[in-house]
Amino acid sequence: MSLVRVHNFSVSLDGFATGEGQTLEAPFGHAGSRLMEWAIGTRTFRAMGLHGEGPGSSGVDDAFAAAWGPGIGVEIMGRNKFGPHRGPWEDEEWKGWWGGNPVFHTPVVVLTHHPRPVLEMDGGTTFHFVDAKPASALEQARDLAGGLDVRIGGGAITVRQFLEADLIDHLHVVVVPIVLGRGERLWDGLEGLEGRFGIEATPSPSGVVHLVLTRRGSR
Amino acid sequence: MSLVRVHNFSVSLDGFATGEGQTLEAPFGHAGSRLMEWAIGTRTFRAMGLHGEGPGSSGVDDAFAAAWGPGIGVEIMGRNKFGPHRGPWEDEEWKGWWGGNPVFHTPVVVLTHHPRPVLEMDGGTTFHFVDAKPASALEQARDLAGGLDVRIGGGAITVRQFLEADLIDHLHVVVVPIVLGRGERLWDGLEGLEGRFGIEATPSPSGVVHLVLTRRGSR
Question: Where are the alpha helices (DSSP H) in chain B?
Fold first, then answer.
């Protein structure tokens, strides 16, 4: 069976995975880019062409960042990761934050109560809009994954729902040393989670701590 | 000027420094001893005579644990650390969780809205019950400290109040890889704290991560 994985999922010291007040200009709300600074400077993120100039760093942050892609056949994301809109689509012009050639290069299942037609982008990314609970969404995603692993892309609510349903095998959380104070928390409602996972911590000279949670019994 | 320090202050992944439902039998509520497991096995804690048998470990957890005492002339603690009672004292029989010869061996300022006479214990510990805001309590504690440093002993509410008042120079937080779900959070109301502190992270083979926050400009 393919694995369900989460990568490069950043939270603040107080456990927020995103700030308050998401808008078109501020995908992470008042958190700005602070939760992703550690990643923006890596060779992996530079190679995606999204951020900054130069080759980027190749230390421990890059080693973790680079694990995001290999072996992945599909991503599942919440609607808030796809865009800042809420409720029914006013139009279907919005095609995500990532331009005409998104970074995914695989099918992407977008969880929403307001489905719309499949959106084919350049470079192999296709957005599938699905109104389903985690287990059913995972089943549909696996059908699109060609036997490869499934990445849960976020945001916090989506990762939490999949953790609650005990559907995640590998969870890479990056603890960023900032106190956000408000936004969406990752760990809420997950009391006792540690009973299901082994946990390994690795600090980076950049100041973040990489936590890897591996579900007991997962390969 | 002497420093204000916090040591061995454990929080769960979701930021709780204590669980819910403190009682005489459960000082940390439903958290039990899980937040302090990393410390209980150290040489330092064994030497205090509180926990377990044998000499204890002498790795990185012990190195941090051992920094608790040296240079400290007084501790300030919240009333909930002193005991499980709330409101006016029904009697004055309760003398803390630590027996006749408490581990502190210095004056201890207990913050409470219900003062009572100074309590002299064996081994040099004296409990002073003080109804004061952080800045004033700190002033009173420094008068008792003989020029040495002040330790803020917890719990969460007390540490948070001193952080809010920007009175803490050195904050050692131990992130324990458990999700408690409920209790008292350390980081609430401290948005932007990182602007005032440099932060260093050290993981331990025991599974915890030691965070040391040093106030910018503190020696």
Answer: 37-40, 43-47, 60-65, 79-82, 134-144, 156-164
